[in-house]
Every structure is written in structure tokens, then in C-alpha cells.
Write a sequence for this structure.
């Protein structure tokens, strides 16, 4: 099961990298840092990102060792 989860995570990461590369080539002013600056401009989004990272870490990293 963890192999499927890791494969899905890596597929999403690869898709994000390809999408970032394609958009970066079409629009030079669009960068990853500009995207994260806009994404993190709201407090609700910051809290949601922290909760999602906590959930992923707890279920996939700490869950196997406890």
C-alpha cells in the first residue's frame, strides 16, 4: 500500500514540475516564487498548507514508526 501512495505522490510531484516548466517557458514573469508568494498571502491558506503537511507527515512518516 505504501508503494502505491509513494507512486501517487511522485506522479503528482512530476506533474507539478512539468506544469511549472511549461508555464515558465510561456510566461517569463510566472515563477514558482511568485506563485508561492500569492498562495501564502492569506492566513487561511497558510493554515491549510501547514495542516496538510502535518497530516501527510503524520500518516506517512510517523505512522509507520509508532
Amino acid at each position: 500500500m505504501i508503494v502505491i501512495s509513494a507512486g501517487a505522490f511522485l506522479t503528482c510531484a512530476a506533474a507539478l514540475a512539468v506544469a511549472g516548466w511549461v508555464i515558465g517557458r510561456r510566461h517569463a514573469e510566472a515563477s514558482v516564487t511568485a506563485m508561492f508568494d500569492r498562495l501564502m498571502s492569506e492566513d487561511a491558506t497558510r493554515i491549510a498548507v501547514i495542516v496538510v503537511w502535518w497530516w501527510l507527515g503524520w500518516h506517512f512518516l510517523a505512522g509507520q514508526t509508532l
Q: What stands out?
A: Residues 2-26 form the longest helix (25 residues).
